[in-house]
Write a structure and sequence with these properties.
Blueprint (H helix, E strand, L loop, with lengths): L4 E11 L2 E16 L2 E9 L7 E8 L5 E5 L5 E5 L4 E8 L2 E17 L2 E12 L2 E14 L2
Length: about 140
């Protein structure tokens, strides 16, 4: 998979009124097939930077976003506006089932790139764990 795009990722998480933000810019692959768009990029392990895993964000023709993350914390988050999905989240310490409710999905993606913004909340055993926002901006590398 050719990584000929530049991806800016901004993740925001609010837990008990405290905000945490993660930002990164990396090379990515961007593919459009059968009405679906996929953005795929490498993430490096924080404890062992020599290890990496692939994260893929898939946006289907109905606007449902699926985030598939590999590595020791592999999971698939299904983000569908106005719906709550249960998602399995694997950690080195075991698996958790989380509820994920998607407030909004905004996409402005074309053949040349664009932007995706998703706002969602995560709950554990029906208790709110965090409010989250994920923004991806992708553009062709020059």
């Amino acid at each position: 998979m050719e990584e000929n795009y530049i991806l800016s990722v901004c993740g925001k998480q609010i837990v008990n009124g405290s905000e945490d933000r993660i930002e990164l810019e990396t090379a990515a692959a961007y593919v459009i097939e059968n009405g679906c768009r996929s953005i795929s990029y490498k993430e490096y392990d924080a404890e062992d930077p020599s290890k990496h895993y692939r994260t893929t964000v898939r946006i289907d023709e109905n606007g449902t976003v699926t985030v598939m993350k590999g590595g020791s914390e592999n999971h698939n988050l299904i983000l569908e506006k106005g719906k709550r999905h249960k998602c399995e989240y694997n950690t080195p310490y075991g698996s958790l089932t989380l509820g994920v409710y998607t407030e909004s999905v905004e996409t402005d993606l074309s053949e040349n790139g664009g932007e995706l913004c998703v706002k969602y909340s995560i709950d554990f055993e029906s208790e709110l764990a965090s409010n989250n926002e994920l923004t991806l901006k992708i553009k062709e590398a020059k």
